[in-house]
Amino acid sequence: MMRHLMQSRVTCIAIAMMFLAGCTTFSKDGGFNSVSSAASGRLGKDAIFVKTDEDRDAVFTRTQELLSKPLGMDDAVQVALLNNRGLQASYGELGISEADLVQAGRLPNPGFTFSRTHWSDGFGISRTFSMSVLGVLTLPVATRIESRRFEQTKLETANAMLAVAADARKAYVKAVGAEQAALYAAQVKDSAEAGAELALRMRQSGNFSKLDYAREQAFYAESVAQLARARQQSVAAREKLTRTMGLWGSGVQYKLPERLPDLPNDRPQLNDLESFAMQNRLDIQAAKLRTQSVATSLGLTKATRFINALEVGYLDNFETDKGHERGYEISVEIPIFDWGSAKVARAEAIYMQSANRLAQTAIDARSEVRESYSAYVTSYDVAKHYRDEVVPVRKTISDEMLLRYNGMLASVFELLADSRDQVAAVNGYIDALQDYWLAETDLQQSLGGWLPPLAMSQAPVERHSDATPAPATPTSPATAQDSPLPAPAMQPAAPTISQGQ
Q1: Mean per-residue pLDDT for 273-302?
Q2: Beta-strand relationship, 122-132 and 310-319
């Protein structure tokens, strides 16, 4: 009867162990749904964790489709989310964290000890089955700790995805802005070359002073250097965009538009940005979960400070002169030399460290929001000032100067001087437009990857709308009448000027 009862208990324990061991399993998505939801909800983009050949083929097809046309800002972000290998590597943290969670939810393996001894007239056999009771008792708490860490890892991985998206946006803005500046620098160089040639012929005919001739030659020499510098900056910015998008081989032959997206006509009204950031920033949510996990771990450390090892075993011994002996044994650590104070002190220090890091993250986030919003407002106002004030005035001056020159009311000296003055105004507008898009990206990132819903509804849907007057690029056929950016004044042919003089 006693033996049957013991066997029943062993059977019940085995069944319970198998049931508990199967409670924690791997999820179907591996935690990636949180990342893909953040990509679609905050960016309106798709995120794919490339694991199989089918995933790789889908990414390749989608990438080729996006690269088959001039690349837009949103397209660059999507390409980066699909191909950035550093981002794909960060997705691996999800698998590591989930594996820790599954491991924490499984019972520790039991131990088995077998020994055989013999003497002159007999022998003995000892068999022991043992299991860590403390591991079983602390399993729910350990599982809860790892579950929070897994949720924390999801948030941190999604935040890394948003950071890559922001890097792609900024790299795109700098690449297009640098290419636009290089194209304009080429036009300035051509204009300066024509002016230098004109000055040389007028100097030879005696209609140009040595000072004015040297001034035009210096302007031409400087424009050549500026063009070389602008082209190198364009190459560097494009390569930075290429690295961010994770492209190589034939993929680097993508085409960029000739100009930056237009400045929105109105700046969205944004209020309570700090509160919005506190609720939506993923790094703050991850820091909160980290602090909660550390707090739970601190409680577990305090609970097990005295007894760190507790094992229960079932004994089945046999000796020739005594027969079978059955029973159990309990193994416990005796806290004589180590009372666990060091472990508790370490856990408390880790908790205070985590709590302070959470507070610092929140403080930094609020400061970043204020700083990025100030830069956003200022850059918009500066770009709008260039668009509505500086560039139109400079265009008017250029038009009037050309009319006066054609009517023999202005000299060639004034026309050349006006051509030099145009360069600073146009480059200033390009830089201001680039600063605005960079500032908007920084503001979105400081708010958790997106602007408040009301601001997003006010934002222009199409970045390159044909209805909005577009700045003329150096290769654009726009004339002085239909472009808000004046081109450098190209000089008339030298023989015509000489005859006019």
Answers
A1: 88
A2: antiparallel
pLDDT tens digits for 172-229?
A: 999 999 999 999 999 889 888 888 888 888 888 887 788 888 888 898 999 999 999 9
Spatial neighbors of 286 by CB under 8 A, at least 6 apart, are 152, 155, 156, 159
Could you give the strand order of the β-sheet that contains 310-319, starting from the edge strand earlier in sequence?
Answer: 111-119, 122-132, 310-319, 323-332
Tell me the C-alpha to C-alpha distance, in Å, between residue 200 and each of 126, 206, 220, 501.
110, 10, 12, 14
Across 106-220, the runs of DSSP E, i.e. the strands, are: 111-119, 122-132
Q: Collect all residues with Cβ–Cβ distance below 8 Å to 224 and sequence separation of at least 6.
A: 189, 192
Residue with tokens 């939810």: 105
d(CA 491, CA 497): 9
Q: Domain extents for the chain?
A: 146-305+364-459+467-500
CA distance 2 to 31: 49
- The answer to whether residues 220 and 394 touch, using CB atoms and an 8 Å cutoff, is no
How many other C-beta atoms can be found within 10 angstroms of the C-beta atom of residue 68?
A: 10
Give the side-chain half-sphere CA count within 13 A for 55. Answer: 10
CATH for 146-305+364-459+467-500 is: 1.20.1600.10
Q: Are 113 and 130 in contact (CB under 8 A)?
A: yes
Structure tokens at 456: 């997003």
User: In angstroms, rounded to a whole number, what is the distance separating the alpha carbons of residues 292 and 144?
Assistant: 10
Tokens 């970045």 -> residue: 463
Residues 6+ apart with CB under 8 A from 35: 47, 49, 91, 94, 154, 157, 158, 161
Identify whether the C-beta of residue 255 lies closer than 8 Å to the C-beta of residue 71: yes
One-letter identity of residue 163: A
**Rounded distance, CA 231 to CA 306, Å?**
69
- Of the candidates 310, 321, 313, 351, which has an alpha carbon nearest to the alpha carbon of residue 136? 310
Lowest mean pLDDT of 47-51, 351-355, 429-433, 452-456, name the range: 452-456
